[in-house]
Amino acid sequence: MSFDVLTSGVGNAFSQRHWGTHFLVRQGDFVLGIDCPDSYRRALGEHGFQHDGGTLDVDDLDGLVITHLHGDHVNGLEMTLAYRRYVTDETLDLYTTREVADVLWDRRLEVSLGQTWNGEEYRSLGPGDYYDLHEFVWGVEEAIGPFNMTTRRTTHHIPTAALRIETDSTTLGYSCDTAFDPDLIEWLEDCDLILHETSPGPAHTDLHKLADLPASIRDKMRIVHLPDDAWELEDEVGLTFAREGEIYEVE
Questions:
Q1: CA 42 from chain center: how many Å?
Q2: Are 12 and 245 in contact (CB under 8 A)?
Q3: Which CATH superfamily is domain 3-250 in?
Q4: Within 13 Å, how many C-alpha atoms sit on residue 21's CB side?
């Protein structure tokens, strides 16, 4: 069964032209976010994705996946959780790996979200006041609403998860941040649509390595995590760069 990919950010960590790479998958009324960069609500609102009679916002999320803890993928989480708690009075189903889960609250969120003032006194808060945590097991399929999701660890500076997001007959593959890895390409190559990163440095994928892949893979690949100076190379390398605001149907 087909589903939509709402592409809300295609830049890398240092881009001045684009939001950090993140997207949402939607089937019917179910919306699942993948990563959460700075100013997440503004990023969603800028593209005007329509959902349930209005512009899609964080209160429309049925869940959120965090692939790793680099800021361009997670900096927006703090205010997303705060908005859900203080404005819409909702917790959020949060999905991530054990390596992220083990440090997310104590080393990332507690300093800003662990205390609140009610007008008379301070109160201590914990993770359960903001989110319900679900941990992936590497390589084991996890059901999330209408989707089945499988993670694979990538070659990156810190623990990072590539994803396969599937329905009964349709699959989206996402490399996330990674050095070029032929085994990862093989893991993704039967997907119906592939989002693959690029950026400079040994922990990312050189654009020209993707250009050397067989046409059968390149034709269903959209490039994300793009540095600003990469855009002039799109025609040269013969790859298709993802565009912010685009909705791709995976079918």
A1: 16
A2: no
A3: Ribonuclease Z/Hydroxyacylglutathione hydrolase-like (3.60.15.10)
A4: 26
The Cα–Cα gap between 165 and 148 comes to: 6
Q: Which two tokens stand for residue 154?
A: 């990538």
Q: Provide the whole-model pTM.
A: 0.97
Q: Mapping DSSP to helix (H, G, I), strand (E, B) and coil, where does residue 103 land?
A: helix
CA angle in degrees (0–180, nearest 5) for 83-115-79: 25
3-state secondary structure of 238: coil
Rounded to whole angstroms, how far apart are CA atoms 19 and 127? Answer: 27
Q: Note the pLDDT tens digit of each residue in 11-26.
A: 999 999 999 999 999 9
**pLDDT tens column, 138-188:** 999 999 999 999 999 999 999 999 999 999 989 999 999 999 999 999 999
Q: Tokens standing for 78?
A: 């703090």
Q: What angle do CA 126, 127, 133 make, to 5 degrees?
A: 160
Asked if 244 and 18 count as a contact pair (C-beta separation under 8 A), the reply is: yes
Distance CA 96, CA 83 (A): 20
Contact present, 159 and 97 (Cβ < 8 Å): yes
